[in-house]
Amino acid sequence: MSDTLFKIGPFSLKYYSFFIFLGMLVACFLIFREAKRKKINEDLLTNIIFYGIIIGILGARAYYVLFNLDYYLKNPIEIFMIWHGGLAIHGGLIAGLIFLIIYSKKHNLNIFKLLDIIVVGVIIAQSIGRWGNFFNQEAYGPATSLSNLKSMHLPNFIIKGMYIDGSYHEPTFFYESVISLLGFIVLILIRKLKNLKVGTLTGIYLIWYGIERFIIESLRTDSLMLGNIKVAQLVSLVFIIFGIIVIIFSFKKNILYHKDN
Question: Above pLDDT 70, what percent of the chain?
Fold first, then answer.
């Protein structure tokens, strides 16, 4: 299976880059549309999106490199080859959050209202971006049988793509993509509630993605490790706890998401 979408002379576009870019594009569209409805200053939002994407990508790469430091110290030039894969979403989320906290304080913005708008775009971007992992043949699960994959009624191209190094593997990238898509739908439906509190969507996202990733990571064979612990599972537990705290905080503050500012 080719990892290249198309090639023109010396220029080639990798599927991995394409799906990450597509996910960002869809997320930006949804974020801008909701922010406009909430009457958030467009210039401020443009800065948030522009710098947030750059910082998020840098954070995602730095996080991945940090947990594969021995390899990248021997192959330092590959640190910059992000089209080969190696963007850890947790690193991107953490870096993006730090940037948002600093930026919102500087411009006197409600951080949780911003996050409520952003997380809806983020989770659909995650769903789309996982397809880049498919074409890079990464983020897959343990070896399985062809009959087991066929019993899931998966499209043939996914089954063929899961034949890696002489064995069929579980398509954990696909599981995560579908669950993230369901999470997106859930957040969209919850966002329609009239008495929705500011911060609730952020809390639900953290809990949803935390549980999702914790389960999926238990199946993955290419996890980033800290000793014998899968880093993503550890961070996912922190996300879940933080999500619960955010929801409790949102109900105590009792600021309505749909209230006009």
Answer: 99
